[in-house]
Each structure stands twice: as C-alpha cells, then as structure tokens.
Amino acid sequence: MFIQVGKQANCHGPYCLASYGSLAWFRNEKRLMAVGETTLLGVSGDMSDFQHLQHTLESLLTQEYDMDDGQMLGTKSVYKCISNIMYNRRTKVDPLWNSYVIGGLDNGQKVLGYVDLYGTTYQSATIATGFGGHLAQPILRRRVEGREDELSEEEAVQILDECMRVLFYRDARSLNKLRRAKVTAQGVEISEPYMLETNWGFAESITGYGS
Predict the structure, then answer these.
(1) Strands of 181-184's sheet, edge to edge?
(2) DSSP state letters, 56-113
(3) Strand (E) or helix (H) holding 12
(4) What is the 8-class DSSP label of residue 118?
(5) Which of 123, 103, 63 minimizes the C-alpha distance to 189?
(6) Per-residue pLDDT tens over the stretch 79-121
(7) Can you name the residues that pair with 3 across neighbouring β-strands?
(8) Strand partners, 22
(9) Residue 76: which residues within 8 A CB-CB, separation 6 or more?
(10) What is the Rg, in whole angstroms, of the alpha carbon atoms belonging to the chain?
(11) I need a surface site. Which of 3, 97, 142, 199 has the fewest CB within 10 A?
C-alpha cells in the first residue's frame, strides 16, 4: 500500500511473505525496490516475474548511468516504462503476473501510480493491491484522501499498520511481518522487517471459532 504524505513524501508498507502454492515458505522476501534516487517500486503477485522486471530495470539504470549526460531517470519515466512493459507482455498473451505501485518525486512533484498485469494504469493519492484493494482501500480513502498535504509521517505509519493489521486478521495466508519504506527529496529509505502487533482475544466471541 502506498500513501502520499505531506508535500514531499510517499510511504509504503508491504508484508514479507512469498508462498509456494499454499505453502507460506519464504518469510523474509523484499517486495520493494529503489529505482534511481527518488523512485520506489512495490509489488504484489508472482515473485519470479518481479525478479524479471528487476533485471530489466537494473539494465535500464545501467544504460542511463553509462550515458553520463547528467540526466536521471525520473519517477514518471519509470512509471511509463513499467506500464509499457506490462502492456507489451499482455498483448503477447504472456503477462507478468504482478501488480505494481510506483511512488516517488519527479521535479519536486509527488507521483503515485498503479500498473497491473493487463497494463491498466491510474494515479491516486492512495493505492492498495490485491486483497488490500477490497479491505484496506476504504480505510485509506476515509483517513487520507483530501488531507494528504497535512498528513504527518507518524500518522501515515499508523494508518498503514492499521490497514495491514486488518488484512492479516482477514487473510489466513498472509503474515504480520512487514517492511516500511518512504521516498523524500533526500532519497529512498527501506526499513528492516518488523512484526506487527496483533490481538486475537476478540476471536473468542465469534461463533464457531476454533471448532
């Protein structure tokens, strides 16, 4: 999930789980990637397809560096590049099975965009993928949209944790181990994994729980 915060920041909070079929095997995956100096890429979906896109973007960044022309690949360019790649693979009936969220700063302007496996794109102040698009997006709209510029980083972190907690309670195949990231004019910061506090006491009052 991505949130636009204040005038010069984006925050993101994905979990660290990658499942092999229904087996929750890989519990320390990094679903975040810094692209250049002020762009952050987050992903849901197939991890091997994400790794393919990572290699493609790294090659592109290497080409940009070798040009040595003083230009930097901006967030809007990365967003356009990923949308073209995803749409191209879709037209070949060989899509990359991912949803991507691209956030960052481009010439001082906040950018937050979404791309899915069909090449569908849109931009918004809040974006959630997968199950979050159904359960977390209403929370994000209520708590964030319309007040992005006045939102503090601390409040944004609380909102992200609240959304991820709801998703963990509702999705038996998720994990309460998360990474947090932010993009500012100073660059991209990606945190180490941390455990989200949960309380299952309420479940005892649910009819049929544990039976």
Answers:
(1) 126-127, 2-5, 9-12, 181-184, 187-190
(2) HHHHHHHHHHHH-SS----HHHHHHHHHHHHHHHHHTT----EEEEEEEEETTEEEEE
(3) strand 9-12
(4) T
(5) 103
(6) 999 999 999 999 999 999 999 999 999 988 899 999 999 999 9
(7) 11, 126
(8) none
(9) 106, 111
(10) 18
(11) 199
